[in-house]
Amino acid sequence: MKDLTTKKKEKYQRLFLQLEDLLKKTNDITSRMATISAVLHHKMDGFLWTGFYLIRQGKLLVGPYQGPVACQELKHNTGVCWAGINQKKIMIVPDVHKFPGHIACDGRSNSEIVVPVKNSNGDIIGVLDIDSRDFDHFDEVDGEYLEKIVSLIHKN
Ligand code: SME
CB within 6 Å of ligand 1 — which residues? Predict the structure, then answer.
């Protein structure tokens, strides 16, 4: 019997290859982010909300996403998404209710992962944000594969 971590890695690897193929069709970053959100949201288990927040003139605004209607703008330097941008790192939050300043767009969310999205110069342009109803849903394996997946957004 394969353990859950191995199964999750294999699933992410399959989705990575599928996305790599799908994203070849255009280099438009909005189309690519929309495709990534849809594939992850519908193929991974336990994703309540899957999408992007993008920096636009100093504001953090919602981009392509799947799931319940979300906040359009996140209050400056508040919550998990801004923390990922400011600290330039993946944020894994096992219990969002314990995260200072967490912004609850949907009361059903209990854990969250935020992965910075960089452009081809390495500047952070936003984040991939995923919420789950389960506590402690995300770990380093999610971080590792989601980082590989978001790197496809700017791949030639
Ligand atoms: N929880 C996020 C806000 C976005 S929603 O999760 C979709 C945050 O604290 O930044």
Answer: 49, 70-71, 74, 79-81, 102-103, 105, 109, 112, 129, 131
